[in-house]
């Protein structure tokens, strides 16, 4: 009954499936992000660790999104060009993500002591923007 009311190919179901896959990849990205922050923080400090971690997580997310979420889409670009496009398209999500992280870390001592909380909030803040921009600009 529900399937009959959903749009045909190219409708909401394929987009919802992509969004769920994107969210799953994003969960792995969050793990890479948090792990990198915790690993690098003692050596280079919180701010530098969060910037380095973002690029590591974004690169890993690009790989998984290319291979799984958007398989076969946007493959006309070279790998390097597509990676750069992914980072560029997700720049707005980066600003949402890291501004959330820093706002929480600098205003709530608990979030600075346990950055995983601020990183989770940042990931959620940038997710919808990153999905939309990735789908429309990188994997079209």
Which keywords apply here?
140 residues; mainly alpha; 7 helices; GtrA_CellWall_Glycosyl; GtrA family protein; membrane; transmembrane; transmembrane helix
Characterise this structure.
It contains 7 helices and no strands. The two termini are 31 Å apart. The protein has one domain (27-138). The protein is elongated and about 45 Å long. The protein has helices at residues 2-5, 12-44, 46-69, 79-89, 91-107, 109-113, 115-138. By secondary structure, the chain is mainly α. The chain crosses the membrane at residues 43-64, 84-106, 112-133. Keywords: Membrane, Transmembrane, Transmembrane helix. This is GtrA family protein.
| Structural shape | elongated
User: Structural class, please?
Assistant: mainly alpha
Number of strands: 0
The portion of residues assigned to helices is over 70%
**N-C termini distance:** 31 Å
Task: Please give the domain count.
Answer: 1
Report the mean per-residue pLDDT as an integer: 91
Alpha plus pi helix count: 7
Main beta sheet: none
Order of helices and strands: HHHHHHH
Portion in beta strands? under 5%
Ranges where pLDDT stays below 50 over 5 or more residues in a row are 1-8
Radius of gyration: 16 Å
InterPro entries: GtrA_CellWall_Glycosyl (IPR051401), GtrA_DPMS_TM (IPR007267)
Domain GtrA/DPMS transmembrane: 21-139
Pfam families: GtrA_DPMS_TM
Protein name: GtrA family protein
């Amino acid at each position: 009954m529900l399937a009959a009311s959903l749009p045909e190919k190219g409708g909401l179901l394929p987009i919802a499936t992509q969004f769920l896959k994107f969210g799953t990849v994003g969960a792995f990205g969050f793990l890479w992000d948090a792990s990198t922050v915790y690993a690098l923080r003692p050596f280079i400090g919180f701010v530098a660790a969060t910037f380095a971690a973002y690029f590591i997580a974004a690169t890993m997310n690009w790989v998984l999104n290319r291979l799984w979420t958007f398989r076969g889409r946007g493959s006309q670009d070279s790998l390097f060009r597509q990676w750069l496009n992914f980072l560029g398209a997700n720049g707005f999500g980066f600003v949402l993500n890291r501004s959330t992280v820093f706002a929480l870390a600098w205003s709530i001592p608990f979030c600075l002591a346990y950055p995983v909380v601020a990183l989770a909030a940042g990931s959620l803040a940038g997710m919808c923007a990153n999905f939309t921009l990735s789908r429309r600009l990188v994997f079209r």
